[in-house]
Design a protein that fits this description.
heterodimer; A: about 250 residues; alpha/beta; Rossmann fold; 7-stranded mixed sheet; two-stranded antiparallel sheet; about 40% helix; about 20% strand; B: about 350 residues; 5-stranded mixed sheet; 12 helices; globular
């Protein structure tokens, strides 16, 4: 019988600590598949942040180092500058990349650092128990927006990918989701493309992934998947935001 | 090599390059900008090296963290307010046992303070500075020549003990020009540290982390760090003695203040007062044992600092009840003159009935 699917070799045989229905485990698997398929395992250095995904290093069988909260892009910069042969990716949540790490992210992108940011947007602070994230959408209830997020009082959801795409050193930015088999396949393609941009030494690449957090959204898994389609994508539309290789083709 | 005339900040840069520093990440702040500029000029286009003017001190120290992860010799520099921002990264470097050299050409504080030389960051430098139980080696140069020598030593110590090393200078040392001789040439190639992250090639994948959900595991990490700190205390404590043999009064001062005190002591000696100087070169580990020994023969100590009395506490701990400790300090970036300190020394000498 033909084997059509197997556990990626780079996914360690540890049981995921993530909640049922969480998107992290899917994204971890996709990253493991892409690194394996591209044959990058001997060159990759991954930087997980504080947050639920700090334990990424328990699951991905590649070199990894934990960064301080929000400093992933700066740590990755130091790695890549000191050791350009490495393929460096950060794995960052919305609070990490779009709140406390905004400066590091934008400036790493602007310098065109040849690194890849995997940006998990689940519109909430997960590990700390469901507080408002910079990407929490309007009217969304969290433990620190108990009345629903009001743009006028708590500020508006920030579109970090669009902001990053403006700067010249950012070469590839795409927003995808992991809430359906089709979207999961698109996410994998986007991660692969982002790594390829780094291999080609073009500049900073970022993949924003809308990812369900049923626990902190207080929803069932299916409901959470649907909420991404019905609510989150209104604020954060899926699709390619920037690809300098296509711009060149068009010109 | 012949001696050359250079300002202190540039000397640190040149000494770092000659120590094999491959990466420098910094953010402008007075009074240390000549160092950042020196690295931009001399390191940014050098083969296998990298210079980044970071977007913040936070970013700079975390770039240091990244470069140290992969085994590079790496340095950052700043002055007091910027060093406060770097404390987050220094704590992570200490926790992950990563070598790095951090230069603080300190200035008056607190707050934005002044850009004039001060020693008010002694507590911050010697008590770890950031969160958690950790130490950094702290070196306190007192001349431009020593900036060169201790910068070289800082890289060796950082690698030897896998620890961040702080060079605690000040704005005056950084700005002044003196003849200096560089005793080393830049190495052709340095060995890669054995635990560096370079990709899982020919070995299992490697994790460098600090977080654990098991307090017992973290306790052992802390014990492990402190066993190394004990070793450093035994092996690396360093100080300079000046005219101590017959001293009735010993001045304890570090860095540029020791330079000022030296002038004051020469004046006092010319007046027939038996005064000597003990200058801690390592502020951590502190020469506690050395000072304790000195209390056998000397019963009067004067701590002189350009702050409100910070190293004073370490001297008091070392002296305990074996001798009397007095203090003279000028905070805020005011630089006392040798004659001013000589008057303090002389007054104390007579007040205490030593003559």
């Amino acid at each position: 019988m033909k084997k059509i699917y197997a556990r990626p070799r780079l996914l360690k045989r540890n049981v995921f600590h993530y909640c049922p229905g969480c998107g992290h485990s899917i994204i971890h698997r996709l990253i493991a598949e892409v690194i394996e398929e591209m044959g990058l395992q001997e060159r990759v250095i991954g930087i997980p942040p504080p947050g639920c995904s700090v334990f990424t290093y328990n699951y991905l069988d590649v070199d990894m180092a934990e960064s301080a909260h929000g400093r992933g892009a700066a740590v990755a910069t130091g790695i890549k500058r000191a050791f350009p042969e490495a393929i460096v990716f950060t794995y960052q949540g919305d609070g990490d990349l779009a709140a406390i790490g905004t400066a590091e992210t934008i400036h790493a992108a602007n310098r065109g650092e040849k690194i890849t940011a995997i940006f998990i947007n689940n519109a909430v602070y997960g590990m700390t128990g469901g507080q408002m994230a910079p990407t929490t959408i309007e009217n969304q209830t969290t433990t620190t927006t108990p009345y629903g997020r009001s743009g006028e009082i708590e500020g508006y959801p920030i579109k970090m990918s669009e902001i990053v795409a403006i700067v010249k050193g950012a070469v590839y930015v795409e927003r995808v989701a992991v809430n359906s088999p089709a979207n999961i396949r698109r996410t994998k393609r986007a991660i692969r493309k982002a790594f390829q941009m780094q291999i080609d030494e073009r500049g900073f690449s970022l993949v924003e992934i809308l990812s369900p957090c049923p626990t902190n959204w207080k929803m069932g898994t299916l409901e959470a998947w649907q909420w991404i389609d019905t609510e989150m994508t209104k604020e954060f539309p899926l699709g390619l935001i920037k690809d300098v290789t296509k711009e060149k083709d068009a010109a | 090599m012949a001696r050359v005339l250079m300002n202190g900040n540039s000397v640190i840069g040149e000494a770092a390059i000659r120590a094999g520093c491959q990466c420098y990440f910094g953010y402008p702040i007075t009074p240390q900008n000549e160092l950042t500029e020196y690295m931009a000029l001399n390191l940014s286009r050098r083969k296998g090296c990298s210079f980044v003017q970071a977007e913040s001190e936070l970013a700079a120290i975390n770039m240091v963290f990244g470069a140290s992860l992969v085994g590079a010799r790496v340095m950052t520099s700043s002055s007091s307010p910027g060093i406060s921002l770097k404390q987050e990264g220094i704590s992570y470097l200490a926790a992950c046992e990563l070598p790095a050299v951090i230069v603080n050409m300190s200035r008056g504080g607190p707050g934005l303070g002044s850009i004039s030389a001060s020693q008010s960051d002694y507590f911050q430098a010697t008590r770890g500075g950031g969160h958690g139980d950790y130490r950094t080696i702290v070196l306190a140069p007192s001349s431009v020549q020593e900036l060169a020598d201790l910068t070289h030593k800082a890289f060796d110590l950082a690698d030897k003990y896998r620890i961040p090393v702080v060079i605690l200078g000040d704005g005056m040392l950084g700005q002044m020009m003196e003849p200096v001789e560089f005793k080393h040439n830049a190495p052709e190639e340095l060995p890669i540290r054995s635990n560096a992250l370079r990709g899982a090639k020919g070995r299992p994948s490697r994790i460098i982390k600090t977080f654990t959900s098991n307090p017992a595991e973290l306790e052992e990490i802390n014990w492990s760090l402190f066993r190394r700190y004990n070793l450093i205390e035994q092996e690396e404590t360093s100080s300079e003695a000046f005219l101590l043999e017959d001293a009735e009064l010993i001045v304890v001062a570090f860095g540029i203040a020791a330079r000022i005190a030296r002038g004051a002591i020469k004046t006092a000696r010319a007046e027939g007062l038996k005064v000597g100087l003990l200058r801690p070169i390592t502020l951590w580990p502190f020469p506690t044992e050395k000072i304790r020994q000195l209390t056998n023969n000397t019963k009067q100590f004067l701590v002189f600092e350009m702050n409100m009395g910070q190293m004073l506490e370490d001297v008091q701990l070392a002296v305990a009840d074996k001798a009397e400790v007095s203090f003279y300090g000028r905070p805020g970036g005011v630089i006392p003159t040798p004659s001013e300190v000589a008057r303090v020394v002389s007054r104390l000498y007579y007040q205490k009935g030593l003559k």
